């Protein structure tokens, strides 16, 4: 199975944009501080990722399903921490 | 030109995940506070978007080029604000 160079670029791109949320999850979990993070961003972003997941399942694209389910998990954990830690900061 | 429903879902997904960075740009511009934002995330994310752009240009996909160039512009502006406002907060 010979993979084009450009497909390798696409795979690396998907890995980078997916993995990039890991440092934010770790940073937020460590600091428990979420003031500077936009709730609207992670809400809209998570909704968009859900649609990408529906799209990937419908067209049976394993790459789209894998990348977006991982990113959705990371984005939702940031969204959850934003909601939970926001409440704690308000009290 | 008849567009499948699932292609419309894909277009809405792309619009949501791209547009979702606008509230973060506005939030960061307004507050000038970047402590909670991960530099590593936006650095790796921007690098990944650059690769997506190379991929989109190479396979001549207008959708991938459009979505990723807009997201790259937004992600880079957050990255820039993170670097600039971080310095101001240190002084």
From TrEMBL, chains A, B:
Recorded coiled-coil stretches: none
Domain of life: Bacteria
Entry-linked Pfam families: PQ-loop
Record's bilayer topology term: Multi-pass membrane protein
Location of the protein in the cell: Membrane
Spans through the membrane: 6-25, 37-57, 63-85
Keyword Secreted assigned: no
Keyword line: Membrane, Sugar transport, Transmembrane, Transmembrane helix, Transport
Database matches in NCBIfam families: SemiSWEET_2
Record-given protein name: Sugar transporter SemiSWEET
Origin species: Pseudodesulfovibrio sediminis
């Amino acid at each position: 199975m010979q993979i084009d160079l450009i497909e390798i670029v696409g795979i690396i791109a998907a890995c980078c944009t997916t993995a990039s949320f890991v440092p934010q999850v770790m940073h937020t979990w460590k600091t428990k501080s979420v003031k500077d993070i936009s709730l609207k961003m992670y809400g809209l972003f998570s909704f968009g990722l859900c649609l990408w997941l529906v799209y990937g399942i419908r067209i049976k694209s394993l790459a789209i399903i894998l990348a977006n389910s991982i990113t959705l998990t990371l984005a939702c954990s940031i969204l959850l921490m934003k909601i939970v830690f926001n409440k704690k900061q308000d009290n």
